[in-house]
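Quick one, T. Sequence first:
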Amino acid sequence: MINKNSKGFFFVLITFLILGYIITSVSLITKSIDVSEKKFAEKFKFSNLEIVAEQISEEKLQKFSQLAAYRALSELNSQTVDYPLKKGPETDEAKYFSLAMEELIKEGTTSGTNFDDSEVIPPLEIYYTDENDLNFDSWKTSLEDTINPLGLTVSSYSFSDFKIKQLDYRTFDYSFTVSFSVVDKATSVKIDKVIKLNGKLDVQGLNDPAFARFTKDNNLASGEGIQKQFFFNPNYIDPKINKPVGTSPEPLYLYSNDESKEGQGWFYGRVVPVDQVYKLNPLDYESSILMGTFNEITNSFEYDKFGAYLVTSPPETSQGCGPEKPKQSETFNALDPESDCEDPISISLKNPTDKPFVVVPDLKFSELGIPQLYFPEEKLEVRLLFVTNADPKEVNSDPTKKLNANPKFYNIEPMRDFVTCGYYAKNENSPSYLQRLFKDSYSLKGKEFGIESFAFGRWIGGDEIPGLSDDLSRLDKEMANNQNGKPILGMPGCKNKELCKTDSFIGHFKLFTDSITDYLGESAEELTCDSTKCG
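Structure tokens:
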């Protein structure tokens, strides 16, 4: 017989066991969840660090360092126009350049003590329009601002071992080390990084601070100075030679027989065959050389408006008064000696002209041997310079002088290209890029890193006031050192005798003795103006 009270006890016992099981199960589940959460939190911290590590990879810091270095160089370059950089000792000329670059890349500012007359020079600071300044101290601050919400912080940071060295006339090599540690705020997770960064800086495209300083000191361009950028053309640079190359005018040997030694004067300009005259703007006649046979030239419309002539037919000759005094026709300034040939022989001229001309029988336009340029594309353009030993005034006084004029032809396009495009050449006797950041730049010699360039325009001998003397050489170091020069045939302001002896709104391109030799080579004497050639 079952007791009712025992049934109640059994029910209570079973209920207690069931509740105990449930409580135990819930406790185990809770502990399991707690362990999982802790593991997840640890995993989350590692995940954050992995993201941070990815964002501060060597590749990304390398790109950032390149931007920071270029910005530092650009700002320092501009600063030295008004505040030249202090020149280091002879054994370490770049000392203050290196200090300034290190501070600018690391901190975004550099002390005035790195500049000449430092007591009046404020620190150079680099300002940006965005929040991310291009220097490593700002990068570190930006990194902290980014990772702090993730429970991470930068526990240590250093910028060290900065070095910068000039590799060649236009390139610098730099390197430094950035070290830092990132930890979570409970210091349970940590990463350490030591990243060595390096790169190269090319000065091409920067403004020349020495040239800007020189022109500013001379109150040019409304007192602001003239900006001239560093540009280099491989056609005029030989890494193994510390002198200008590729600019010397190339003699063109277009003739080999005696008939072609006739002519007078000198002239530089576009060569226009008679059958191409219709393509030429009449305003350009005066600055061009008309090419063709004598009859083609003289029958050409408005031929007398051209600046010079290249005659491709030989003169018709007869005995006259001997081989040195023939009777001529079908040519300019044709000799016509008197029939009795008594001394002194009186010689008159037929088809007279005071304009420069040369005679090169049977010459074809395609044989001129000059690089052919298309301006505009539908018209072939060839330019040359011809020079003779006979001045038109001399020929007018003694007509036979045109027979021994010994004309020579030159391709001066490389020289004109180098000058008008403002390229820089190597020259061991000129200041290097680094020295152009210093005071009195043009008194320094950069040896294997020396560079130089030309300048010309209305502000040198032209019609711009204030301006510099027209007598100055157009080479930057010679101009700055107040060295006068001689006009060069075919160059700006001196493309023919009339231009060279009269006022020019852009002045007359001139070179001093040293640069004449460097840039004109063996042709120096023949291409330099003298009292006869330039009047």
